[in-house]
Specification:
Distance between the termini: 19 Å
Shape: globular
Number of helices: 6
Number of strands: 0
Structural class: mainly alpha
Largest sheet: none
Helix content: 55-70%
Length: about 120
């Protein structure tokens, strides 16, 4: 949701499918979007070889400052998610029309981890 809101606020064209692995969509409106997506996915996969390749690609395309910023954002995100998960902070707006529309658009309920998301209709 934050990507969609910040893009609207800054009048930036984005293609939300980029957050679920579509390379062309990731490159829409976001500098180094495809490389950033690949870097983020490699971190989530914890595959050392893929991570090294994605790090090299991002460094080559965007330079060291962007690579360092991306690594910092990824580390901070991991920290925040782990803290929230460990103390049981739920996401309160799973039933909102906006969240439901994004879940539908991106096919998020097809991911195995979707079973951990609570909604009032039992999805």
């Amino acid at each position: 949701m934050m990507l969609r809101v910040s893009a609207t606020t800054t009048d930036t064209e984005i293609a939300l499918q980029g957050v679920v692995g579509d390379k062309a969509s990731a490159a829409t409106g976001i500098a180094y979007g495809a490389e950033l997506m690949h870097f983020a996915e490699s971190i989530a996969l914890r595959d050392e070889k893929v991570m090294a390749e994605s790090r090299k690609a991002l460094l080559g395309a965007a330079g060291p400052a962007v690579l360092v910023d991306a690594a910092g954002v990824a580390a901070n995100f991991q920290r925040m998610v782990r803290i929230a998960d460990s103390i049981g902070i739920p996401f309160d707006y799973m039933d909102s029309p906006t969240v439901q529309a994004i879940q539908q658009e991106l096919g998020l309920k097809g991911f195995a981890s979707a079973r951990h998301s609570m909604t009032s209709d039992g999805d």
